[in-house]
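User: Sequence in, structure out. Go.
Assistant: Echoing your sequence, followed by the structure tokens.
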Amino acid sequence: MIKFYFDVHVPFAVTRQLRLREIDVLTAQEDEAITLPDELLLARSTDLNRLLFTQDIRFKALAELWQKENRAFGGLVFAHQMRATIGQLVCDLELIAKVSTREEWNNMVEELPLR
């Protein structure tokens, strides 16, 4: 099952709901990494073997740049703050966690909602 790493832009309601569904989520706040720049946070999530989820458009741009530069990272899921509800995010992230493998996400960028 996929383990997630959430940056500071993700509402706690998403974290709480996923944990109720027994999805492993570590937040940047819990990891005491809230002041890390995006580049180091992406590397941190990769080192922890966790898929990064963010609602920060700059983070998505960074991951796409790393793809173009062939820089290895553990994958990133992005959702625009105005285009997905908390319920949609929870459903999509639960689906990702339960039906995909960690290896499938290496160097990938995906945008939510999936539908």
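User: And one key feature?
Assistant: The beta strands are 4-6, 25-27, 51-54, 76-79, 109-112.
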